[in-house]
## 1
Amino acid sequence: MSEWELPDRPVIGILHPGAMGAALGSALKRRAGAVIWADAGRSHATAKRAELADLVAVPTVEDLARRAHVVISICPPGAAREVAEQVAAAVEGQPRRPLFVEANAVSPGTVTGMADLFPDDGLVDAAVIGPPAWERGTTVLWLAGPHATLVEALFAGTPFDARHLGPELGRASALKACFALQSKALPAIWLALDEAARTLDVDEPLRAELARTGVDYPGSLDAITRVAKEKGWRWVAEMEEAAATLAAAGVPTGFSEAAAEMYRRS
């Protein structure tokens, strides 16, 4: 295993600064020589978030990969492999490669499948649990892999509480997938219940029975409906990755697969 070293103030690349990526980038500014992002093909909303977080734009993913000492991938789960391949291709044959932090909601199998793209243990498995963090106490960044401690040190004293799970790739992603069962798969039952009750014309008596037994059905349904309209499109792939995680553990996958389908309909 090769030794990795980071300069005192490394250049850190964020792919891509959505709400979470912007918060991660902002958190690292104090420790970094620069926090950069690739603006080619990105939306005005992404550019605005990066500007507000005071991140430095570079033209392309290739430029970012070749300048950065650390690259953090935080994107929709369905794009995670593509982003990793773009970074790996950009630095192939280069004298220096960045440490690649895979921080997306993907399965352990997806993470370990990316390891060959980053030789010498150059990939760190990461999982963010909590909202975009602008102050401490809300969000934990779980890390795993042979060089996870390097990333843990970068986040010391930031709003993200970085915690190390050990050297085995996939543990952070496994934790994220299991957590997502209760944070995203369980709430999807309200969407399924609502659709079934309306289709079968038992919506009113169901609401009455749930109210009689102390269940806040309207509140629970309204909460997940609002969030699903905003984020359901990206939760589809996350639930599919969670299903792959369950399958690898020998656990039935129907919970996550059903949630993915309900979010696909949102």
Note: The chain has a mean pLDDT of 95.
## 2
Amino acid sequence: MQQRTLGKHGPQVSALGLGCMGMSGMYGAADRSESIATIHAALDAGIDLVDTGDFYGMGHNEMLIGDALVGRPRDSYRLSVKFGAQRGPAGDWLGYDARPAAVKTALAYTLQRLRTDYIDIYRPARLDPKVPIEETVGAIADLVKAGYVRQLGLSEVGANTIRRAHAVMPVADLQIEYSLISRGIETAVLPACRELGIGITAYGVLSRGLISGHWSRDQATDARDFRQHSPRFQGDNLAHNLGLVELLRELAEARGVSVAQLAIAWVLARGDDIVPLIGARSRTRLHEALGALDVTLGADDLAAIEQAIPPDAAAGERYNQQGMASLDSER
């Protein structure tokens, strides 16, 4: 497995990470046994970065991962955890809580669910507008000193917030959406991270399956699948975006790879400080994604891809109105 270092201050990790959100209901029903088998297959293939959030399935995802990791040496994998999102019993979103006491309480529950003594990278899922980022980071710094957390991460915050957080404590990595059709970080966020020596863990590299080459109009039928509420998956936007996928398919077939492999390889090619998170829910999709590591894109390849799909090619925002309003990275 190829290795990459998360910036100047972060750990060395596998060139691909495993994002586990989709194993806990966010994309509709998931198969528990296949989810665990997929985690095992990822670890066996050399993936050592496992990403979750304590609000994925209201703790379900952490417990699932905890079960899957039983018997694995703790130093053979790294856990990246997001916290702070508040959800009701019906799964509704209630905002964010990143007060110092809430940070420490959330970690206490996370440690129990994941059956571990420490978290490798701990990060607020979003900026809490009611709490200065310095206070949230200060609480995580306390947890680092106590040995419960190894390093600080951030998620979906803008350049100014990154600088403020980094001034309190070195940031290992920023987790943020980045793909061929989600390139907003290139303007200010990515340059700030590179200036400060902060790595990027990129989620949504296949735009939640939209540019995987496997998506079709009739797939989002489960009411629990939040893609039903995503502007990119609706109406004329979806038709337009699937047209982009067909352009990408032509390029992929000419190179003897799948659409997903080409899209992941493009993110890998954007810099050695970027680690794509693969949201595979099955071993089949995982194995396809791993194939991206064998795809080498030269300057001509990258130029052809970006000519077919320029930065603003996608139709629709990446989240609904409520979701976009919560993104400090979009301000």
Note: The mean pLDDT is 95.
## 3
Amino acid sequence: MGLSGAYGRSDDDEGVRVLHAYLDTGGTLLDTGDHYGSGHNESLIRRALETRNRDEVVLSVKFGAMRGPDGRFGGVDARPAAVRNFLTYSLQRLGTDHVDIYRPARLDPAVPIEDTVGAIAELVEQGHVRHIGLSEVGAETIRRAASIAPICDVQLEYSLFSRDIEDEILPVCRELGIGVTAYGVLSRGLIGGSGTTEGVRAMSPRFQGANREHNDALAARLTELAAAKDASVAQLAIAWVAARGEDIVPVVGSRRPGQVATLAGSVHVSFSAAELAHIEQLIPRGSAQGDRYPSHLMADLDSERGRR
């Protein structure tokens, strides 16, 4: 997402170099959405993969988020006919005959999840999709979806600053044998990042006023432990998410080739039980201030229903 203008101006040539740097480190998972740059991100990935073996890459694609010419979002369309239409255009932009994981970006309140998952299941049978995923949905929706077809994973925000999935969603995923793709593991740069307020950060409550000051102070508490482990704060935060279980895969975005090696280095960071307990003391659950999205977007998240 960051390679298609979400956090400020982006450069396509630099974006391709970032993707190559990631693949050169041994990375395999590329997570995108057809609404990232209104198709731009998928076209960028196609360009990067032209000299690569397609079968060595796992393409995870989100669909359904509608955008206008001004870039504003206009709801979600996850009707079966729309599912097939969105995939057709994604395959064209990506230059491939299949995607490995296909998931609605958000729950469409007007369409039963059973209908959406059933449509993707047909695409799996036809060979256009390998696995079915979900994104930002609650425990009940996950159960309903899993009753129709096998669900590979659920994409959810999960970090030291965002841990609500631990209450119901993560236990249900583990009960059903469904993985979690964790995004926002650095809380959009608040933890160990530049923390600039360009792009989507400008509307994030966590980046506003007193919330920002409080959250910056929270993240700074990790500095000493990170130094003791010869790691950066970002590496520490990524490794913490990975340490929550083998069924959790952190997804981290990079905008420059130099960031890739640094973030990939998080795989070498491990924790003792005492260190994990210390991190819990440094950043207690629920201590971050501000919602992870503006109120009007939070209201649309099925994963937040019943919590607000």
Note: The chain has a mean pLDDT of 92.
